[in-house]
Amino acid sequence: MPGGGRHAAGGMMDGMAELKQRLREDLTVAIKGRDELVTATLRMVLTAISTEEVAGESARELSDDEVLRVLGREAKKRREAAEAFGKAGRTQLAERERREGEVLARYLPAQLGDDELAAIAREAVDEVSTQLGERPGQRQMGQVMKLATARVAGRAEGSRVAAAVRGLLQG
User: How high is the pLDDT of residue 41?
Assistant: First the structure.
């Protein structure tokens, strides 16, 4: 797919994650189009990705899934900042954060609705129930969360997944 460049690693890995490459290409388009908001937002997220790549024991390229996690984290920061600025009466800053969040949302998978999330949580509870031979309780929340989070695959915030699972385990 993306041809050439310095990152044509070959082998099992295709070099740079496709999503990261798309972010870089979109940044170039935004710079050429003098789109300050998109340029600043994409630079910020690419910096966050680079920081993640050099964190830990050794530098490495992130996979698309890992890039999505970084994007999700950055989008959540924008939502929280917009809310905080809004409560403080700083409407211009709140609006800027919201607009940055909208730019990031273009790269994130569509978020699950409440019904879809509840169904995934129910499936995870049922699967753990089958493994245990009994209905799981609060003590098995970690097991259920692990399954549910894997199935959600970034399409819902962890707090929403936890609330759905907790509701089923308590009810």
Answer: 97
